[in-house]
Structures are given as structure tokens and as C-alpha cells.
Request: fold
Amino acid sequence: FHYRPLPRFPAVVQDLAVSVAVSARAGDALRVIREVGGPLLESVELYDEFRSERLGSEHKGWTFRLSFRSPDRTLTSDEGQHWQTAITIALRQQVGAEVRR
Reply:
């Protein structure tokens, strides 16, 4: 077991909801998020996958929880939003994801 000190600064936690083709793979989306999320992306979790008539039979929904944290200062929500925007663009380009509102 490894000792890790508790973080001194709070995380900025944001949810990102997207719709994707039924054939999309969550592992691909998680890889993209980790690659693009920047050095302050502490964790990413896919915590919901669903299908509904509203999305249609060709799409499903995913919701990711993104956690950003700096080891030496408190982040602003704008900083978290900057990285979330970069992630959204990359998911659209590489996985075909569209943000759900």
C-alpha cells in the first residue's frame, strides 16, 4: 500500500454528457479524454450510459465525470471549462460525440 498525502487544493468537478453512435466504444472515448485532458485532469469516470427514444435507435448517451486539480493552487471553473471544451472538440473529431444539453 502506498501513502499519498491528501490534496491541499480542491478539485474542479464537471460532468460532460454526450451522445454517440451505438457502435462507439467507451474505451476509445476514455482514451481521448485522458490524452486531451491536460496535466490537471486528475480523473475521468464514465458513470452513466443510457438509450432513449429521444436519442433514437442509432445513438446512446454517455455521461463522464471530469475532475481537474492543481497541486499548487485552486483552479477556477473557467480553467476546468477550457479543458472540457478541448475534450469536447476531440471527442467530436475522434469518436463522433455530440454534447447533450
Notes: The chain has a mean pLDDT of 93.
